[in-house]
Design a protein that fits this description.
Distance between the termini of chain A: 39 Å
Strand order of the largest sheet of chain A: 7-6-15-10-11
Helix content of chain A: under 10%
Largest interface: A-B, 134 and 135 residues
Largest sheet of chain A: 5 strands, mixed
Oligomer: homodimer
Number of helices of chain A: 6
Number of strands of chain A: 26
Chain lengths: 426, 426
């Protein structure tokens, strides 16, 4: 409930430099109270309201499966494929045009290694074999008999934000730089349940998970993670998982890099050690400065990105704005997000939108009074393991810049006096 | 995490009559431990796994906005329109084919009073006038400057489940009977923020909210609710609200009957009393036995429904099943859901899927060992206000059966020895 007897506002609401205001202003007061956004027109308001054409004739009929407005056609993914292919590449979520924590299924990012297979659920099978007492084969119908579990979880491609390893800031916005991150409610059967059905041999320490696409995408996963929280996901945001996200079933490993959440899951093999597939040797390893590679970097580290304002979204007149974005961590729950408007010189805590869930995207919001001058916006996430999102320069000092994966350094948007927003290193 | 040292299972896991098991079995043990669902095939498992055609050729390419599998075409809404119209009626969510708490946008139920208007967001305006200090007109762009808030909330049509007022149980399933209920993450601007911008006249006690469709759908809402938690929603499950759900903006009144969540919101007028529109006098009132009608029944009372098993989903062999469904309350948070397999003679508490949020759908799950005999499945929700979902007979004894709105009595599915599931009164 909004309180009517709120205290008068003063400079004490300033929470950090360059106009960042106390996050609680959004909870206890309103835009009007902190200096109206003043973007409504109040000259002859009522008289200005025309009767539009769509108020004069009946609208369009029902359809079995709904679609977005024709006016929101820009709310779409961008994508690129490897030369000579149509389906080897990635499509990216337009976070600058979205809000909330859920990514709708039509806009979830995708990373395919050989396109989207057209799987017939009647003939698809999931095999569990290797170091088990009895190998088992599951149909989709069989899986539907098992107890289900739902969880809201992000998936992030290991290669998300890779361009920040480059020497110069790519002149791009949220979607092409950070769009390989999405968040959905996944529902399925605990893989642990199926493994206990099969009977785990005590020698088993890892699994191999293999997809039914033409690339035979496959990864090794420690058994401990599998028994902990791995799901064989059948539903995404309520409905059956779509072909582009693994229909009829995919592996969900909450917090782990995207490719390990194997789509079109067809085979789980229990093993003593990792299988060393092509997807964890020639790919998805992290090249260090000394020429050696780190292998098996599983969890996506804590990270955040401001989605609005961001490049491509030009600022209007000076005044009150909301800075908003997403934060997430493969280590657990987001504990804190701080926002800076002066390139990291000072920081204000942002409000976190409930519910704040482990291994889920968390929406943060911070009120900002833009004075019309230059500003450099940054966000910094801390998770409940205590891990703090590093600056870009610290990340590169520690790791070098030869890697292309797991970039989670702080990103910076520069706001110019003109209102233009640009990607910068700061 | 699954525990390895779990206690041996015994008859003490029986939580209620006719096979209902302790809900914690799903948390501390697995299907295998309670007697495997035994639906996997383990004869020559590995050898049985063929190389399917979709593993031999590259799959299909990326698209800007994704769609469901062609194999899930039955996961669709059913709908009916009033005679002589194409867009006056309702479409219903196929809950028997969904799982989780989120309804994807393409399957959210709809109730239109004159079809779906094709609104140009550039010319659409939201007017705030009446008992305010200065009337204001907002464009969509103007609203985008304001602080946002997200919440996961159900919307239920007042007429959902109306057929249970009939003398005989309609031979229908979850979708046609209970499909006017959906749940999404809504993001928008608090209406209170806009009203404070306009300056509320102390005489104001109500608002009128009007939509821009051809029916001029409009409802009166107490100002207290509006100042409490009303949102002008701009996003649904992350993306812009779709035309069928109010694009470019709709009113969200968490917990209140669906029609009050006015779609295509164009006008808010502050008033001393209710406006007595056609939509709250000739419609959406509750006819009592004595011929008088209850007016202004706002909150949807606590309710639950079992979505699986349910009519149309035939049972397989006897053994372990999961009973699952949704519960929700316009009074607050779901505190408890109980499940019965013997028509209400005995009840077992179901497990509630986290997060359990106020005015949001809550997924419940209960393990059930079906012995192959007849069973009558029921669920009963209790919310954190202490309200308990009534039996159908109590609801009708209290209210009569001349109403068509707000039916929230306990529903019953009868499972026959054949495995067929039917709607019954029990």
């Amino acid at each position: 409930m909004l309180k009517n007897n709120r205290p008068a506002l003063s400079e004490s609401e300033q929470a950090a430099g360059n106009g960042l205001l106390d996050r609680r202003l959004f909870l206890t007061a309103t835009a009007a109270a902190v200096g109206s956004a003043a973007v409504a027109d109040h000259a002859g308001a009522a008289e200005a309201l025309p009767v539009e054409p769509w108020m004069k004739t009946p609208g369009s009929p029902f359809v079995p499966y709904g679609q977005p407005s024709k006016y929101t056609s820009k709310v779409a993914r961008v994508f690129a494929s490897a030369p000579g292919t149509t389906g080897t590449g990635a499509s990216r979520t337009p976070h600058h045009l979205l809000d909330g924590m859920i990514t709708p299924n039509g806009l979830h990012f995708e990373r395919h290694h050989s396109g989207i297979p057209d799987i017939n659920p009647e003939t698809h099978r999931l095999l569990i074999h290797g170091l088990v007492k009895r190998p088992l084969v599951y149909t989709l119908d069989a899986l539907m008999r098992y107890p289900m579990e739902s969880r809201i979880a992000f998936i992030e491609c290991a290669g998300n934000s890779a361009s920040l390893y480059q020497k110069e800031p790519a002149q791009l916005g949220v979607q092409p730089i950070h769009g390989l991150l999405s968040c959905a409610e996944w529902t399925g059967v605990r893989l642990a349940t199926l493994l206990e059905d099969a009977g785990v041999d005590p020698r088993a320490r890892w699994i191999l998970a293999e997809g039914a696409d033409a690339s035979g995408m496959s990864r090794s996963v420690p058994l401990e993670k599998v028994m902990g929280d791995a799901l064989v996901a059948i539903y995404q945001n309520g409905e059956p998982v779509r072909p582009s996200n693994g229909y009829p079933m995919r592996l969900l490993l909450p917090g782990y890099e995207g490719n390990m959440n194997v789509k079109w899951l067809r085979r789980i093999k229990l093993t003593e050690g990792p299988t060393m597939t092509k997807d964890e040797t020639s790919k998805y390893t992290m090249l260090q400065n000394d020429g050696k590679s780190l292998q098996f970097c599983f969890a996506q580290e804590a990270k955040s990105v401001i989605t609005r304002p961001s490049p491509g979204l030009t600022m209007g007149a000076p005044g009150l704005y909301e800075i908003t974005g997403l934060a997430w961590s493969g280590y657990g729950r987001i504990a804190k997000v701080e926002v800076s408007a002066d390139g990291g010189a000072s920081w204000a805590p942002a409000a976190l939108q409930e519910p704040v869930l482990p291994m889920a995207a968390t929406r943060f919001r911070s009120p900002w009074r833009w004075d019309g001058g230059p500003a450099t916006l940054q966000s910094r996430a801390t998770d409940d393991s205590g891990y703090v999102q590093p600056t870009r320069s610290k990340l590169i000092a520690d790791r070098g810049a030869r890697a292309i994966y797991h970039f989670n350094g702080i990103a910076s948007w520069a706001v110019a006096q003109s209102g233009e927003v640009k990607h910068v290193y700061a």
